[in-house]
């Protein structure tokens, strides 16, 4: 852990720089399961991207490209919401 | 200067018009309703550029003020009593975020029993939330204090929210002569707000109001404590500058025939006008009576007040609210504590008066002087004007 600031070193007015959550790797919260993407099934609807609470679905040029496992906490929302049938383009699997 | 006749509420609404804040969020409550009601008319008539947010409660009003001030806006509101109480949850957030929100607060008794008249229980209950608190004796002071409040609150050394108070009905609805400063001069006097940060600044994005646990909460309270200390210097500087520009004198307190007084009362708000009459009558009959009228209650000018009161024979502190602590009202405990280190302490007695708008008159204040002249004969805490 970094050294704690004293009160005179704090940023002014109880503010923090934005996007500090990026440095906080929530990926180590996963409890043994991670989402796995099956690109051959994916229709790039972006439902997983908009549903992920940790912005951990990675996207390039409007196409889903996989997961940021450093921050994905394994909640499974993306797998649940993925609409493809009969097989889902995201499944939760053992790490 | 323009001489007009205005009630306290009208004077505050006029000051708001001249300040022309970016945002006003408010909810009506007696006896403060008129301030924001008159101001809403100014908005509707296009006399100001303000975004007026009519909200569903005072809790929402203060929340909207915090949001708008975080976005960098100059923000004002007005309230009283239960309305202020409904804001309590948000008040310390405004000071922690260092948002110089400006509030017109009309002192009114806190329920229950439900009551709409003046005492100081609402404002006193908000004294430990990191807001600067300024009391006014009359309409003129309410107007002048509100203009100075902008400069005090927004000073870079301070950056704290501020409430300027009047006394419910006595000042808020009492019509008096008011010397108003011309609009362009006020505009120049208050200047433009330069916020420390803005949520709308996408070039420099910030997180505001993050969670603080055992590791940082304490550190985040220290800047507020420091800012309150700075506020003492700034209040005096702003007061001096105001006097230089407009001729009316403002400091932490006003001394009325105090320097050579042997006996003195300490008063806040409208009752100080009554006390002045009582003191004049006592002086005419040879009693060396005087008064210290406190204008700034937060930050509390303890050392300065101690210097003024030390060496007096006896002091009566008049409190228009009770602390229910069995040992005196909020002003009394501050004054007594301020005098603790003085070598030549006066005897100090507390008189709680005027709860729920109960009248206080010249005779009663003369009786207070009579009581303290017989040092040791009265209890430490007294309740006057109550049937017992
Ligand atoms: S498992 Fe949860 S955190 Fe991970 S990518 Fe899916 S929705 Fe996001
Ligand atoms: S929800 Fe499923 S189909 Fe849609 S983009 Fe995500 S993985 Fe592909």
pLDDT below 50 for ≥5 consecutive residues: which ranges of chain A?
A: none
Which term fits the overall shape of chain B?
A: globular
Number of domains of chain B: 2
Strand content of chain B: 15-25%
What is the radius of gyration of chain A?
17 Å
What is the succession of H and E elements of chain A? Answer: EEHEEHE
Q: What's the overall average pLDDT of chain B, rounded? A: 97
Task: Please characterize this protein's 3D structure.
Chain A: Keywords: 4Fe-4S, Iron, Iron-sulfur, Metal-binding, Pyruvate, Repeat. The complex is a heterodimer of chains A (95) and B (388). Chain A has two helices and five strands, in the order E-E-H-E-E-H-E. Chain A has helices spanning 47-51, 77-81, and strands at 15-17, 33-37, 57-60, 63-67, 90-94. The longest helix of chain A has 5 residues, at 47-51. The two termini of chain A are 27 Å apart. Chain B has 388 residues and is α/β, with parallel strands linked by helices. Chain B folds into two domains: 2-246, Rossmann fold, CATH 3.40.50; 253-383, Rossmann fold. Chain B contains 13 helices and 16 strands. Chain B has helices at 8-19, 33-44, 58-70, 81-87, 91-96, 121-125, 139-154, 183-190, 217-246, 271-284, 302-309, 330-338, 362-373; strands spanning 2-6, 23-26, 51-54, 75-80, 102-107, 132-135, 162-167, 176-180, 206-208, 253-256, 263-268, 289-294, 296-298, 314-319, 347-352, 381-383. Chain B has a seven-stranded mixed β-sheet, with helices on both faces. In chain B, strands 10-12-11-14-15-16 form a six-stranded mixed β-sheet, with helices on both faces. In chain B, helix 10 (271-284) crosses helix 13. The N and C termini of chain B lie far apart (49 Å). In chain B, 49% of the residues are buried. The A-B interface holds A 4-7, 10, 12-20 and B 96-99, 159, 196-197, 205-210, 215-216, 218-220, 222-223. Strand 1 (15-17) of chain A pairs antiparallel with strand 9 of chain B. The complex binds iron/sulfur cluster (2 copies). Residues 37, 42-48, 64, 82, 84, 89-90 of chain A line the site of one iron/sulfur cluster (SF4).
